[in-house]
C-alpha cells in the first residue's frame, strides 16, 4: 500500500513538474525582450494605415529616379516570373532597358498582374528546369536580337525553392537539387555564355541560429530567441547542414559560397541576402498568404522582425550590378561577398501586419491566438510522423501523408519566426568603402499598404471571393510532386 502511494506520488510530482515547465516555456516564447522592443518602431494605428492607404492611392509611389542608371547590357533573370526576379525585370524596363535585352528563365510563366501588361509582356521567356544542365544551357544559348547580341551579359539568379520549416536530412535532396546544383548549372552556363556579372539572391536566413526553447527553469529566455541578421557568418567556416535551422538556409549557404567563390576580374559575382520575410505581391507568403485567408491561427503576433519589399531587394541587385560593373580595382572592394538588405525602417511586429489587413482589406480577416507551446509540441510530433516512412519504409503504404498547412508545421518554423533584427549597414556603405550604396525605396508601412491596395483593386469586381495564387511554398510542393513521379523540374 505504501509502495503504491509512493509511485502515485512520483507520477503526480513528475506530471506537475512537466506541466509547470511547459507553462514556463510558453511564457518565455510569448514575450518580446526589452532589447527588441526598444529597437522596434511604434505600433501601426488604424488612422495611420488609412492615411497611408489614401496617400498611395491618390499619389502612387514612383521611385524611378532612385534606380541606378541604365547600363548598356543584356540580362538573363532566372526566376524572373517570381517575386524578386519579377521586380528586377520591371525595374530594368522602367529605367529604359528594352524588352529585347531581357530574358526570363523560369519553370513557369508569371501570375503577376503587373507583368501581364506593357513592355513586360514583350520580354523573352525560356521555360527551364535549372536542375538540368542541358535545359539551362539551352536557355542561355538561345539567340538574341541582332541589335543587342554583342552587349555584355549580366545574370540575375533569383530562382530557388523555399520550404523553410523542413530540417530533416531525409528531405535535403530536393532543396539541394534546386538551390545548390541548380545554382551550379546556372553559374556554368553564365560563364560559358560570356557573362561578366553574376548577382544571386541569397537569404538572410543563412545567419539564423536554431532557437532552443527547452531551457532550464531559471533561464530568462530561450537560447537564440532574438537575433541580429548580418553577414558576419560569411567570414566563418561553412557550417554542416545540421548547423542551420533548416534545409533551406543550409542549401542557400552552400550556393552563396559557390557564387562568391567564382569571383574574378572578368566574372564579377556577389549575393544579396533579403531580410527574413520578402513580400510585395499577392503571390508572396508574408502578406499575400494571410490576405487570402478569412481566419489565421497565429502564435507570432508579438514577434518583431524586419521585412524586405521585393522592390527594395531588386534595387539592391541593381546597385550591386552597378558596383560590379566598375573597373576591376574598384569593383573588387565589394565583389565576391554577400550583402544583407531590408526595408528602410525599424522592425515591426506581426501584429502590425495583422492590423493593416484587418483595417484595409476588402475582405474580413480574423486572427486566432495560439499558445506557442502548442505549436512547439505539435511541430515535433509532425516532424516525427513525417520521418517515419523514411526511417521505416515498410510503413509507407500504411501511414497516410499529411496534407494542408499542418505538413509544414515543423520545428524550423520556431527559428524563422523568432525575433529577428536586420543590420544592413554594410550594404549602405558607399562603393568606395566596400558597400553598395544601398537605400531602400519603400518602407514596410508603405510596402504592405501598397500590397493590400493592389489586392483590393484585384477584387473590386468580386469582394465575396479571394483569388488563389501560387505562392513560393505551393510552387515548391508542385515541383516536388512532379520530381517524385519522374518529371524532374525545378524553379
UniProtKB/TrEMBL annotation:
Span of domain 3-beta hydroxysteroid dehydrogenase/isomerase: 76-357
Record-annotated membrane-spanning stretches: 6-29, 75-93
Coiled-coil residue spans: none
InterPro entries: 3Beta_OHSteriod_DH/Estase, Lipid_A_modif_metabolic_enz, NAD(P)-bd_dom_sf
Annotated GO MF terms: oxidoreductase activity, acting on the CH-OH group of donors, NAD or NADP as acceptor
GO biological process: steroid biosynthetic process
Keywords, in A-Z order: Membrane, Oxidoreductase, Transmembrane, Transmembrane helix
Keyword Membrane attributed: yes
Pfam name, any one: 3Beta_HSD
UniProt similarity note: Belongs to the 3-beta-HSD family.
Protein name: Uu.00g142130.m01.CDS01
UniProt organism field: Anthostomella pinea
Amino acid at each position: 500500500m505504501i509502495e503504491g502511494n509512493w509511485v502515485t506520488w512520483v507520477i503526480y510530482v513528475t506530471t506537475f513538474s512537466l506541466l509547470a515547465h511547459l507553462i514556463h516555456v510558453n511564457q518565455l516564447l510569448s514575450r518580446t525582450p526589452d532589447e527588441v522592443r526598444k529597437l522596434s518602431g511604434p505600433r501601426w494605428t488604424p488612422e495611420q494605415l488609412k492615411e497611408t492607404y489614401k496617400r498611395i492611392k491618390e499619389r502612387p509611389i514612383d521611385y524611378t529616379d532612385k534606380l541606378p542608371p541604365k547600363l548598356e547590357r543584356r540580362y538573363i533573370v532566372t526566376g524572373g516570373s517570381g517575386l524578386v526576379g519579377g521586380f528586377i525585370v520591371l525595374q530594368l524596363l522602367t529605367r529604359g532597358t528594352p524588352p529585347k535585352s531581357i530574358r526570363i528563365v523560369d519553370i513557369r510563366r508569371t501570375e503577376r498582374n503587373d507583368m501581364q501588361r506593357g513592355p513586360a509582356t514583350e520580354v523573352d521567356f525560356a521555360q527551364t528546369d535549372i536542375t538540368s544542365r542541358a535545359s539551362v544551357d539551352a536557355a542561355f544559348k538561345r539567340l538574341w536580337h541582332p541589335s543587342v547580341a554583342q552587349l555584355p551579359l549580366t545574370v540575375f539568379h533569383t530562382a530557388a525553392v523555399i520550404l523553410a520549416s523542413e530540417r530533416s536530412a531525409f528531405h535535403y535532396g530536393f532543396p539541394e537539387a534546386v538551390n545548390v546544383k541548380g545554382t551550379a548549372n546556372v553559374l556554368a552556363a553564365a560563364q560559358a555564355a560570356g557573362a561578366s556579372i553574376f548577382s544571386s539572391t541569397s537569404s538572410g536566413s543563412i545567419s539564423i541560429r536554431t532557437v532552443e526553447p527547452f531551457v532550464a527553469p531559471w533561464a530568462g529566455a530561450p537560447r537564440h530567441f532574438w537575433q541580429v541578421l548580418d553577414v558576419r557568418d560569411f567570414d566563418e567556416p561553412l557550417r554542416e547542414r545540421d548547423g542551420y535551422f533548416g534545409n533551406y538556409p543550409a542549401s542557400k549557404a552552400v550556393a552563396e559560397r559557390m557564387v562568391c567563390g567564382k569571383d574574378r576580374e572578368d566574372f564579377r559575382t556577389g549575393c544579396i541576402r533579403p531580410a527574413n520575410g520578402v513580400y510585395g505581391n499577392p503571390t508572396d507568403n508574408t502578406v499575400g498568404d494571410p490576405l487570402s485567408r478569412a481566419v489565421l491561427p497565429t502564435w507570432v503576433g508579438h514577434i518583431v522582425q524586419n521585412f524586405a519589399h521585393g522592390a527594395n531587394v531588386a534595387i539592391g541587385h541593381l546597385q550591386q550590378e552597378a558596383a560590379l560593373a566598375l573597373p576591376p580595382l574598384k569593383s573588387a572592394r565589394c565583389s565576391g561577398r554577400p550583402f544583407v538588405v531590408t526595408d528602410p525602417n525599424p522592425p515591426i511586429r506581426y501584429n502590425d501586419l495583422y492590423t493593416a489587413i484587418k483595417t484595409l482589406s476588402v475582405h474580413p480577416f480574423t486572427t486566432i491566438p495560439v499558445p506557442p507551446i502548442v505549436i512547439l509540441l505539435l511541430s515535433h510530433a509532425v516532424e516525427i510522423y513525417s520521418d517515419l516512412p523514411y526511417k521505416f519504409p515498410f510503413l509507407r503504404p500504411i501511414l497516410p501523408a499529411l496534407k494542408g498547412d499542418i505538413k509544414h508545421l515543423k520545428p524550423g518554423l520556431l527559428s524563422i519566426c523568432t525575433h529577428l533584427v536586420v543590420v544592413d549597414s554594410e550594404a549602405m556603405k558607399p562603393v568606395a568603402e566596400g558597400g553598395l550604396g544601398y537605400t531602400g525605396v519603400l518602407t514596410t508601412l508603405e510596402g504592405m499598404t501598397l500590397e493590400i491596395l493592389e489586392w483590393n483593386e484585384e477584387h473590386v469586381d468580386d469582394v465575396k471571393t479571394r483569388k488563389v495564387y501560387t505562392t513560393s511554398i505551393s510552387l515548391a510542393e508542385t515541383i516536388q510532386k512532379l520530381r517524385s513521379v519522374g518529371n524532374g523540374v525545378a524553379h
